[in-house]
Amino acid sequence: MNPKQIALVQESFAKVLPIADPAAAMFYKRLFETAPELKALFKGDMQQQGKRLMSMIGVAVGKLNDLPGLAPALHDLGRRHAGYGVKPENYATVGGALLWTLEQGLGTAFTDEVRQAWTAVYGVLADAMTSAAADSSQTAIRFSGKVPASK
Fold first, then answer.
1. Which of 56, 84, 98, 133 has the most Cβ atoms closer than 10 angstroms to its Cβ?
2. Which residues contact residue 17 at a Cβ distance below 8 angstroms, ignoring those fewer than 6 apart?
3. d(Cα 112, Cα 131) in Å, to the nearest integer?
4. 3-class DSSP state for residue 28?
5. How far is CA 79 from CA 15, 32, 52, 126, 128, in A?
6. What is the DSSP string of 61-105?
7. How many CB atoms lie within 10 A of CB 6?
8. Which pTM does this prediction carry?
9. Pair 32, 93: CB distance under 8 Å
10. What's 137's DSSP letter?
11. What residues does each domain of the chain span?
């Protein structure tokens, strides 16, 4: 992840903010299409979950220039997700759903360069979360940026 990629992610996320609620709904729809088994991990109001998701992404995107400052929150989030039953391999599925959502929401603004930037950023964030979860007996994985096909 380099400064240009950080800027691309921050700029493109700013374009997603006006459609945050529909983008979150699209994300979860895609996630459950590609991995229906993950739906069981979500017990609450999905609209509120979507708001939390977009808020969390916003915080992370806003702090990409301060990864040491962001790391404790990512580690805590990773441990909490492990406690909810999220497995390391689920991060690739989530990353794929995120990239798909960004592609749908941004349209032609989702260039190959923006895709690569989001892939790099998500990889760093997912690595931080899975490494914290690994401290809880799980194994860290690397996000390849490949989007899983719908089942």
1. 133
2. 54, 58
3. 28
4. helix
5. 30, 22, 17, 12, 10
6. HHTTT-HHHHHHHHHHHHHHHHHHT--TTHHHHHHHHHHHHHHHH
7. 18
8. 0.83
9. no
10. T
11. 3-35+44-134
DSSP 139-151: -------PPPPP-
For the residues 49-76, what does the mean pLDDT come to?
91
Which among 53, 49, 71 has a CA at the least distance from the CA of 16? 53
Q: pLDDT (tens digit, 9 = 90+) per residue, 79-118?
A: 888 888 888 888 899 999 999 999 999 999 999 999 999 9
**Element at 129 (helix H, strand E):** helix 112-134
Contact 58, 9 (CB under 8 A): no
**CATH class, 3-35+44-134 region:** mainly alpha
